[in-house]
Amino acid sequence: MPRPRLDCDTPSAMQRMIDTFWQLLSERKYRNITVTDIVRKANVNRNSFYYHFNKLDDLAYRAIHDEVNRSPLAQSGGAGKVPDLQHWRKHVGELISTEEERKRTARLTMIVGPNTDPVLYQAFHDNEREALLEVLSREPEDVDPRTDLMMDFIVGGIMGILNRWLHMSETHGSEVLADKDATAIATRVYDLLLENCLPSGKPAGKAGE
Amino acid sequence: MPRPRLDCDTPSAMQRMIDTFWQLLSERKYRNITVTDIVRKANVNRNSFYYHFNKLDDLAYRAIHDEVNRSPLAQSGGAGKVPDLQHWRKHVGELISTEEERKRTARLTMIVGPNTDPVLYQAFHDNEREALLEVLSREPEDVDPRTDLMMDFIVGGIMGILNRWLHMSETHGSEVLADKDATAIATRVYDLLLENCLPSGKPAGKAGE
């Protein structure tokens, strides 16, 4: 799939299309969403859609890209500096119970929910993997097989959590997990990243602790 | 889905059907496999199939159940005794490069491969989760939300590894990972189980180290 253009000179039309994508995905299966649905509901010109995207899959990729990269984890790294565990724990503790974070979780659970599609799974996998490698200052093309597998273990695990979270929320409501438990899980996942997926040369043990 | 009967008084017919299931899954999509295909190729009477199973999904569930429970991890626990990390590392080190283990891995990658189906994903998830809980002597109905999510993180992660393993094997051949790396990953996964999913009352820290 060709990457959608990530530079954008009409953010409001783009954002309306992205928001409409999430809204429609909450209502129906991905395969039952059409470009026509998007442009009508977003009140966007059809040409505007095709200016930004070649096809619906590209909008889905972009929407998931944005959601993944809005995460506190993705934003805590960058510029070659890998945030340590204390930094990350504090960051998560501050953010995890905000309305914004809940909205983000709700959107991401749609990727594993009943309306999902292999296209959405793949887009989440690719974006999440890329975001995590960037936080750890690793180059995607320079990852050894063992780190490669651990990275996919972590991304697969995050999907497993989203899937379970969805079922638990449906059964027990959204307050199923205490903030301290959510922080503990998020910390554990990041710990696993630091332990296993740092650039070579960094300590392989309990980095950041 | 009703559970297939796991007691079986005609193991050879049963085993032929299971082997045929894996063979056909290596050749075509799960949805393109029929009960007729199975009984013809396994040389089993149609009545014999329906004596053991209500439908094809039940055979798939049973085949995946057997494969999951043949794993060294599943077999290392039991009788209320949780194997510690040293025990597990030694066990994996001995088994991971055997022909039997390679065959098991090849079968399990079919569950996440191009011929997969949501039914197979779900069967793997349910069986793997059950097997891990049993190794840890945890009752499925007595799992707190935090452990619940960590358990699904681990099962999702194992699926992520299988999926990546499949792609890496296709690109680089089966010898992509050294035995020591495979052992390190298997050990890390078990470590995560011990750290996060033990019955309450057990130490929450680095159990078994």
TrEMBL record, chains A, B:
Q: Which organism is it from?
A: Bifidobacterium erythrocebi
Name the lineage: Bacteria, Bacillati, Actinomycetota, Actinomycetes, Bifidobacteriales
Q: Which residues form a coiled coil?
A: none
Q: What is this protein called?
A: Transcriptional regulator, TetR family
InterPro entries given in the database record: Homeodomain-like_sf, HTH-type_Tx_Regulator, HTH_TetR
Q: Which PANTHER family match?
A: ACREF/ENVCD OPERON REPRESSOR-RELATED, ACREF_ENVCD OPERON REPRESSOR-RELATED
The keyword DNA-binding belongs to this UniProt entry's keyword annotation = yes
- The organism sits in which domain of life? Bacteria
Q: Which is a Pfam family this sequence falls into?
A: TetR_N
Per the database record, which ranges form the HTH tetR-type domain?
11-71
Q: Which residues bind DNA?
A: 34-53
Q: Which UniProt keywords apply?
A: DNA-binding
User: What terms describe the molecular function in GO for this protein?
Assistant: DNA binding
